[in-house]
Amino acid sequence: MENEELDEYELQTQAIRKNMDQISRKILIMSGKGGVGKTTVTVNLANALVDMGCTVGILDTDIHGPNVAKMLGCEDGVLGSPDGKVLYPVEPREGLKVVSLAFAIPDPDAPIIWRGSMKNSAIRQFLADVEWGTLDYLLIDSPPGTGDEQLTVCQSIPELTGTIIVTTPQSVAVLDARRSVGFSRRMGVAIIGVIENMSGLVCPECKTEIPVFGIGGGQKMCQDMHVPFLGRVPMEVDLRKAEDEGEDFMKDGNTHPSRDALLEIARKINFGTACSTGRDTSFIGTPQCSPSSCAGCTSNCASRKK
Ligand SMILES: Nc1ncnc2c1ncn2[C@@H]1O[C@H](COP(=O)(O)OP(=O)(O)OP(=O)(O)O)[C@@H](O)[C@H]1O
Ligand SMILES: [Mg+2]
């Protein structure tokens, strides 16, 4: 690398550090297998955390299939850049900031034919040049696997809080999810926990649960590999519909087991980290911290309020 390029890279690294220092928790959502529900988890956790009073950013690093904007109903958004340098995120609702390549490519049918190096630069640019401001959470959606995008995120963000690994209960998905566990360990990044998505299908008519991809595979993997289990989210037609329509499923007034499950997971993550000191994530995996673990804690978690 030429000296000038090195300087540019170093300057960008410094800009990333400055930006990321303003964000309390930076979480990479990943999976080994495609289509298991990473984006679903990202957008619904983001909405749930905003409902709890948190400020949340979403960075969509799925360059080839950026679906976050569509699921949030803000695909017509444009990244503002009045001075041509700083990028301003799209804000589909108060407390939520979203950055995705989808906002920069007006034609939704246009394929993004990029090699790894181009993807790495785009992700680093989003981390460095976006005016994220002060946030409680940055949720980073990623494509399946353990490749360029995940590597760039882990190597570029100092003090990444951890990874959330999404899998279905099916053996082939679990097999790939185990690699995401291995990846996180190899990168030295904490595993916040595993979510077993599409864990049974709730029949919209009779409400019985059909084990389309089985049930319990993700939970069993957590026991085997000694990683925290965050919960299981069943398949539900209304969740899929809400995402296709770009509607906030968390605001759906009807009873939904999948929404309750996602809400419970958001609570675990929020109360867990809110009650920990520094970047300790050891509380994660419990519904809320116990009063004893709150001793000396200055957060507003439910246990402390008692
Ligand atoms: N619990 C669920 N119930 C019903 N539909 C779901 C559920 N989870 C995900 N889906 C649907 O399954 C499809 C795949 O989900 P999603 O796009 O979130 O997966 P992904 O892991 O992000 O995929 P990719 O690997 O392509 O990025 C979407 O159409 C989504 O609406
Ligand atoms: Mg996705």
Automatic annotation (TrEMBL):
GO terms for biological process: iron-sulfur cluster assembly. GO terms for cellular component: cytosol. The keyword Hydrolase applies. ATP binds at residues 32-39. It holds the Pfam family ParA. InterPro entries: Mrp-like_CS (IPR000808), Mrp/NBP35_ATP-bd (IPR019591), P-loop_NTPase (IPR027417), YlxH/NBP35 (IPR033756). Keywords: ATP-binding, Hydrolase, Iron, Iron-sulfur, Metal-binding, Nucleotide-binding. GO terms for molecular function: ATP binding; ATP hydrolysis activity; ATP-dependent FeS chaperone activity; iron-sulfur cluster binding; metal ion binding. Binds and transfers iron-sulfur (Fe-S) clusters to target apoproteins. Can hydrolyze ATP. Belongs to the Mrp/NBP35 ATP-binding proteins family. HAMAP family: Mrp_NBP35 (MF_02040). Homodimer. This is Iron-sulfur cluster carrier protein. It comes from Bullifex porci. The lineage of its organism: Bacteria, Pseudomonadati, Spirochaetota, Spirochaetia, Spirochaetales.
